[in-house]
Write a structure and sequence with these properties.
The protein contains 9 helices and 16 strands. The two termini are about 20 Å apart.
Length: about 325
Amino acid sequence: MIKKSEILFLYETSYNVPNGDPFTGEQRYDDETKKILVSDVRIKRFIRSYLEDIKGEHIYVSDKTGAGKSDAKGVITWIAQNWNSSNLNDIKEIMKTLIDVRLFGGISTLKDDDAKKIKVEKDGTDEKVSCTNGHVNLTGPVQFAALNPSLNRVNMRIHQNTSHFKSSDQKSQGPIATTTLVPYSLMQIHGWVNPTVAKSTELQEDDLKKMYEALWYGTSGEGSSFSRSKVGQDSVLLLVIDYVESHDKVYGLDRSIQLQPKDNKKEEQIRSMDDYDIDFDKLVNLTKNKKIKEVRFYTEIEDLKKRLSSFEKFTFMSL
């Protein structure tokens, strides 16, 4: 049974661009707090890419289906005719066979007439039947905060490099490119799992297990995180905070983990985990609330594993 949960996922970045703005390419940044920002879209892309490229899962929002390049009819048609081994003809049911729809939801904007033009084979015969239920709007039971701030303040650094591709025969070298890099950040991604909404997409526990694996490895060097702008990321800690009841809520979990610099350093001077401690005191106090059943966690850092295992309700989980 799916439990209501909150997710806190920490990962570190070093001299890269954790989440560039799609229009400017510059790192998303809050000028007032001096913290960098990572969007939910970026995190879902890490997850989808890992599930598709590494685990071989079928993904709705994928280049393979034509998402972003084809219209809704083209995407649905391709899925119905290529990834529909059960020969389903209800578009909503077809969409729910895809793991990212079960996790994050999905939309189909087809009119009934357009849906009818999509033909699939009828079981055991050469006959083809029309698809139905073209207009679908499935809300995702797993959501992440639209923008997630780093736990530390950051001073951006400008990096210049020269391209090897010359713009003309007269140029002895390629153009100079300027990139604004993040020297170091400890990112915290905040997410939620809603068991009520999970019923509508038929989300399964195994889907969540795969998602947690994808979140961990897909952020730290596998799938779409293995690129020039993302190399330098390492997963630090994954916390899944399970509630007792589906309506329970404890305020402030996303602001409960604190970063404490060492040796009188400023947050902007941090360059590695050796430069700070992670303070879990507030988180531990909040999780003593009777509304919280258990805190499952995963880390590959032995010191963190030892510390967290000593707290009440904290249980190490596998990926």
